[in-house]
Design goal:
Family: Belongs to the cyclin family.
Order of helices and strands: HHHHHHHHHHH
Domain Cyclin-like: 93-177, 190-269
CATH topology of the largest domain: Cyclin A, domain 1
Pfam families: Cyclin_C, Cyclin_N
Largest sheet: none
InterPro entries: Cyclin, Cyclin-like_dom, Cyclin-like_sf, Cyclin_A/B-like, Cyclin_C-dom, Cyclin_N, Cyclins_cyclin-box
Shape: globular
Keywords: Cell cycle, Cell division, Cyclin
CATH architecture of the largest domain: Orthogonal Bundle
Radius of gyration: 19 Å
Length: 301
Amino acid sequence: MTTHAISLESNENLLLQHKTAPPLHPRSFGTDLTNLIPPQKSLNIPNLSIYPNEYALDITNHLHETETQYLPRPGYMIIQESINEKMRNILVDWLIDVHKKFKLVEETLFLTVNILDRYLEKNQVVRENLQLVGVSSMLIASKYEEIYPPEIKDFVYITDNAYIPQQILDMEILILRYLNFNITTPSAFRFLEQYAKITDFDEFALYFARYMIELSLVEYKFLKYKPSNIAASAVYLTQKILKNPSKSLKSSTTSTDLEIRTCAKDILVLLQKAETCTLQAAKKKYSQPKYYEVAKLQIKF
């Protein structure tokens, strides 16, 4: 397992350098999306409708009722003096890679980032401790979501011994106390999980939608969207891009058409930038055969 202590220097000479994405030309956002190129190979893909979905709508309604209770405030980075949104994005990209190496369940990743952002929202963090907050957030999320969570020594190792076990323990306690031990919160992944059942997505469609919401996880600016909005927009784009004949989600989401289309436009920008952006963890993950290589899907912009 490769270990990484990520560099977050203020001069932006970071471990991962950002490249300038090609300009996105103005486009109308409607039926023209159906002209995007669908997958170029025939796959024997099981349909997700075999999974229990009789409670999907009730579960989704409950998620909608509780989703805003523990969300970080958009624009919170303004209070930070030593770190910025680019450093946060680099950290989340690295956490995606760590999550993959540890073979954790998907919800652990989304909960990790929620905990990270909620802590950073009101607590000053020096750049030297940003990675410490990140791995401590993943430790908390792992204990909450995993049957066999990684041990502290695993997080020490994955950071190339940048921190000692006691530092991670102390930060874990600090974060939990700040959050008042309120950990449960609906994520875009949980909403997508339910939406996929409601719309009868097959696995290819589900993984493509998951790829999009994971790209949004890295981007700080997506904090302005509710998790349900991001998930609904990913479903909308999946149906358009793949020309997927699955069921409509309209009656099962609280997001308006305008909210979905606005968020979907921003997700399209992420898909375009994914080709050149230096933050490649999500793209590499979803380029694997186990995810039907959905990140390699050629899309016209």
